[in-house]
Amino acid sequence: MDNLELIEDLVMGEQFNIKQEKKEKLFLKIVLPQLEQNKSNPNIKAMYDKLGVDIKGIKTLEQVPYIPVNMFKYYELRICKTEQVVRVLKSSATTTGTPSKIYIDKKTSIRQTQGLISTLASFLGGKRRPMLIVDCANSNKQGSSITARGTAIRGVSTFASKTFYAMDSEKEELTLNIDRLKAFETKYKQQEILVYGFTYIVWSKFIKVLKQEGIKLDMPKLKLLHSGGWKKLISEKVEKKEFSDTVAQIFNTSAANVIDFYGMVEQAGVVFIDCEYGHKHVPDFAEIIIRDLQTLEEVKFGETGLIEVLSILGTSYPSQAILTEDIGEYIGIDNCPCGRHGKYFRFKSRVDKAEIRGCGDTFAEREAGR
Amino acid sequence: MINCYGLNGEFYESEIKFKNFYEIDTCLKMNLSELHEFPVQAIILIINEYSKKIATNREILRIEGAPFLCFYLKKINMEKQIKLNLGDIEYLNNFVQIEDEKYIKAQPMGVVCHWMAGNVATLGIYSVLQSILCKNSNILRVSRECVSSVYKLLELLDNIVVEFEGNNYSSKIILKNIALIYFNSADVNHNSEMSSKADARLVWGGETAVNAISLLPKKTTCKDLIFGPKYSFAVFDKSAIESNDFEEYLENLVTDIIAFKQKACSSPQVLFLEKSKLSVEEIAQMLCGKFEKMIKRYTNLDLEQAVSAKIINKRGEYSLSLDKLLYISKGLQYTILIDNELKLEEAITGRTIFIKEVDNIQDICPLITKNIQTVGIASKNTNKILEFADKVTAMGVNRVVKIGYMNFYDSPWDGSLIMSELVRWCSFNIKGMI
């Protein structure tokens, strides 16, 4: 089987089916030629040269050279030709003010959509259903560039028979349209429905408002998917359990129907969804390595480190190995009670950017004073 | 709440808690007169014994900076420091005649309040003992990270008795004049109350801490010694690079980088190399070798998440760039980043050094501001570095020291002779009266 067929099999096939040992072999077979391809980008080539990367000598996924996620903010890491770019994905730029720019060609775009669908199908089944999006329509407007929120909405929308936006955007502020929400509830409350929103928006602009207004909804058959924005919620000391319980209460459903998934715009198409045991599973076309913050080696089970996300989806940018600024706990391989194969883990937090400040901490003042 | 770990000569491993500074202040005021009666020579002898106790205690010697601390506290050095700071040791004991029937004496300030930074635990000991030599009582507020180390270090000062001119003097009296405390740095009330008790305020810390404490209410007579944020770098000239000692200089540079997790104000962040027959790449490779050797001894990296993230990002930036170079360890043990931009880089810390080549070490001078504390230098040309030192110190640098000595505490520090600031110079002038 050539690599293209193999990629298709891994992306389109039923997910979480391959045992780790076999998966690693298949993955390496696909990734190594992709790394060769990456060298067409001068920055990537410079990186491989400086780090002495010998692609033919790579024997394990841990040896695949990774790109720190922030580098997509500062370098044009495009592998395809400019004219092949169909879309540029942009991150939310909350920390640095500079968004990541991910160049997507047609092939990558298709694979990302296919990958997302086959992953979500494992949790949602194949049936399309009415979908309520806890966001405004503007967040998913058509154009050559698209934000992280838009990317996620588009992905999840493939499971929608119809989509409804619960929010309006007024002067760049999101406001809940209660009339539209109630109309959606009246029409679909007895049906299986899908709700999707960014975690922070769901909490701060939706749930909080409904609580303030004393509004409770009745949509027991929903699946609410949410992702992103945990950093802000953690700063407000909102834990995952509190989030799920509160959301479930408002919708009159079980907390098990509130599903957190972890993903990032730099690895669009790859999402890690909580199974019923609270573990995040890795789809067959992706991989994770949780790296120790001192040695950068893969941690042992039960230990935490930086989450590296590997993917075979990208042909237009180096998606093969991206080191995130998220901390995860490595839980196990192939043996989650939910039956899914491969590695599984827990998302813990964003990297703590707060440092012990001492008398050597002067650069900002010195720069300002020059 | 104020967590108090040492008061009135007693230690509290499980801290005692106070709502305010009333007990602490009362206790210190009560004990000050006993310290005032001590001849300074007795204090020096006690500190000398203390230094010996540190030197023979393996656990304490593991505290970063403790080996140098015990060297610094030796009698001969203490005497030297007092002489440098005050001119004559006797000023601390008696009125000393300086003219016909005119005398001066260095009297204590009273209560000295120390706000210590979290990056160097031993600094608290330097700060408080200099104040003790000036016979002040002290409130030593340390950071949460340093409580345990400072506690262990101070505990060792207990149970020392020395004899001077036929009298015995106990270290208990010194300890009775040190209150070791911790409270949350964001607690404005405790900070304000502590500040209002101070006859002198010694503040060591980063920009935020220093600015916040500077603005607190204080007595009109209170004297401030602010050791704010500083930046340091290293310079190797051509003569050093081409000398037989070059490898040793590189080893010393690594020692300076590794100490205090590279977070001290005296830690080098950039190495400027003067053009020589060796290329920057060759030097970087040699430096790698020195790091590799040193990291076998200093295995404890203990990087904070934020520092790891910064290093990873810098490595990414330098590896992807078309005109920058890097030499790194497999893990995050060390990072050498090379580029041609003549500027000072934001301190990454965690054993990360930027290397930049210059045509002449004088080219660095335009980068100097008053925020530069230490320049670690390697050179074989005395006249050249004397000229360089004169230039950079005129522009703001406080210390130019040989490489390997950047983090060694010394007097003057940050432009101050600290002990001379912790006394009130009092005169007694009766010329023609009697």
Summed up, what is this model?
The complex is a heterodimer of chains A (370) and B (434). With 370 residues, chain A is α/β, with parallel strands linked by helices.
Write a structural description:
The complex is a heterodimer of chains A (370) and B (434). Chain A has 370 residues and is of the alpha/beta class. Chain A folds into two domains: 3-78 and 277-350, Luciferase, Domain 3 (Luciferase, domain 3), CATH 2.30.38; 127-262, Rossmann fold (3-Layer(aba) Sandwich), CATH 3.40.50. Chain A is built from eleven helices and 17 strands. Mean pLDDT of chain A is 88; it is low at 363-370. Chain B has 434 residues and is of the alpha/beta class. Chain B folds into two domains: 2-228 and 415-429, Aldehyde Dehydrogenase, Chain A, domain 1, CATH 3.40.605.10; 231-402, Aldehyde Dehydrogenase, Chain A, domain 2 (3-Layer(aba) Sandwich). In chain B, helix 15 (382-395) links the parallel strand 17 (372-378) and strand 18 (399-402). The longest helix of chain B is centred in the middle third of the chain and has 18 residues, at 280-297. The model of chain B has no long low-confidence stretch (mean pLDDT 95). At the A-B interface, helix 3, strand 1, strand 16 and helix 11 of A face helix 10 and helix 14 of B.
Architecture blueprint of SSEs:
The complex is a heterodimer of chains A (370) and B (434).
Chain A: H1 3-12, H2 20-38, H3 42-51, E1 67-68, H4 71-74, E2 85-90, E3 101-105, H5 106-124, E4 129-134, E5 145-147, H6 148-157, E6 160-165, E7 167-170, E8 173-176, H7 178-188, E9 193-198, H8 199-213, E10 222-227, H9 230-235, H10 240-251, E11 258-262, E12 272-273, E13 280-281, E14 286-291, E15 304-311, E16 321-333, E17 343-350, H11 363-369
Parallel strand pairs in A: 1-16, 2-5, 4-6, 4-9, 9-10, 10-11
Antiparallel strand pairs in A: 2-3, 7-8, 11-12, 13-17, 14-15, 15-16, 16-17
Helix pairs in contact in A: 8-10
Chain B: E1 2-7, E2 10-18, H1 22-37, H2 40-55, H3 58-61, H4 66-72, H5 75-86, E3 96-99, E4 102-108, E5 111-115, H6 123-133, E6 137-141, H7 147-155, E7 161-164, E8 167-170, H8 171-175, E9 178-182, H9 188-197, E10 200-204, H10 207-214, E11 223-227, E12 231-236, H11 238-241, H12 246-258, E13 268-274, H13 280-297, H14 305-320, E14 325-328, E15 335-338, E16 352-358, E17 372-378, H15 382-395, E18 399-402, H16 418-421, E19 423-429
Parallel strand pairs in B: 5-6, 5-10, 6-9, 10-11, 12-13, 12-17, 13-16, 15-16, 17-18
Antiparallel strand pairs in B: 1-2, 1-9, 3-4, 4-19, 7-8, 14-15
Helix pairs in contact in B: 2-4, 12-13
